[in-house]
Amino acid sequence: MDKLTRTAISATLHCLTGCAIGEVLGMVIATALGWHNAATIALSVALAFLFGYALTIRPVLAGGVPLRQAIGVALAADTVSIASMELIDNAGLLAIPGAMDAGLGDWLFWVSMAGSLAVAFVLTVPVNRWMIARGRGHAAVHAHHHHH
């Protein structure tokens, strides 16, 4: 596997982490409150972006970059990746019969969430690879901190 592909996988795993935290938290909150699908998806997507950006901003800030610039780095690095992942993930959840109506104690809820995120990861790796190859996306972060 070439370095570019490894970097894309790493970037997508980073994205997946923020998206998964936001998605699960959003689904848990909205399900517990009895919200309908549109509100549930809106909250989950908003939290996925929030956590995705926060996971990028934190190490950039630790690298000594001012907050305003760190926010710009996160927006440049993660917006397309998170948007791709969220589009695929939510389309998957909507396509699985009963997934959006499953309760938190229902195995279908958790299996659907995990499966949709896994598919989103696989389909977002090439998006990130394409962007990094062009000096965009997660490549913006590398100028500001050492990525593990």
UniProtKB/TrEMBL annotation:
Transmembrane segments: 12-35, 41-61, 73-95, 107-127
Segments forming a coiled coil: none
A matching Pfam family: DUF4396
Residues of the DUF4396 domain: 6-136
InterPro entries: DUF4396
Presence of the UniProt keyword Transmembrane in the record: yes
Keywords assigned: Membrane, Transmembrane, Transmembrane helix
Name this polypeptide is given: DUF4396 domain-containing protein
Source organism: Actinoplanes octamycinicus
